[in-house]
Amino acid sequence: MKKVLVARRAPAAVVEKLASHFDVDLHQGEVPLAAGELRARLQGMAGAYITGTERITAELLDACPDLRAVCTMSVGYNHIDLAACTARRVLVTNTPDVLTESTADFGFALLMATARRMSEGERLLRDGRWKSWAWDFLAGSEVHGATLGILGMGRIGQAIARRGRFGFGMKVVYHNRSRLPVDTEAELGASYLTKEALLRQADHLILVLPYSAESHHCIGAPELALMKPTATLVNIARGGIVDEEALADALRENRIAAAGLDVFEGEPRVNPVLLTLPNVVLTPHIASATMPTRLAMAHLAADNLVAALTGAKPLTPLNPEVIPA
Length: 325
Ligand code: DGY
Description:
Strand order of the largest sheet: 8-7-6-9-10-11-12
Distance between the termini: 23 Å
Order of helices and strands: EHEHEHEHEHHEHEHEHEHEHEHEH
Shape: globular
Radius of gyration: 21 Å
CATH class of the largest domain: Alpha Beta
CATH topology of the largest domain: Rossmann fold
CATH superfamily of the largest domain: NAD(P)-binding Rossmann-like Domain
Number of domains: 2
Bound molecules: (2R)-2,3-dihydroxypropanoic acid
Structural class: alpha/beta
Number of strands: 12
């Protein structure tokens, strides 16, 4: 029987499914395995069932030559060296589509909470600092009818565009590496802008682009300087896309109005300055966290692993070129 490592706790039905095909080693701990532990646990394993918290590097692959498939329960795969996997004919899969709508729901919720100062209001109320109604008390910025800027117009970006355009009557503008076909733009009611124009025009800017060397700190001091002082910034992509020091400075000096962050550069560590600022809504990387969505992701990752190691076609491969014809 082939051996697989399930590197994080997973739903019982998923572990059972994997155990009906493979000899499963399950890491039960709440804390991810350290790099050395992961390498040790992967010895002799044909498959790795991971999440976004395990890094698969070229060095790890060289130390684990039996590994044939890496299946991540995440849509993002910046934690996996895909080129190194492909070069070693290790199949990689992720979990797109099943999380699109719930992640878009969360992105929109975070945008609303940020623009309408919900966390600030709740903290004040819980601390007993609520004195009275006043005309300008916790007055935030408008969401309906405002200009929604989307940086990264993949599946999740498009699902957010629909919410903004058809739910809230927003003007939707976007920037993406490649422009969408005109009929998709028309269907979404979204207009393409250069990145600079997007930064200048957005009332609410949401980041939904993949993280890579190219997108590292693509929102830093120069980009924040282009944004409106009344603008909000929401990041549900990856922490490294934003230069957190520059963002903290901009928020402290009210050069932008507010930020909503679900992802951080050094997760689970959060920049201590951000923790002190009132105009930031902080959530712990939970954009896809509804039970139905997480179950769908967990099962898709497992189905991919079963297919990859039993000669069937995985559902969502990232490097299909390594699948034998
Ligand atoms: C994803 O699916 O990429 C989420 O960010 C969870 O890692």
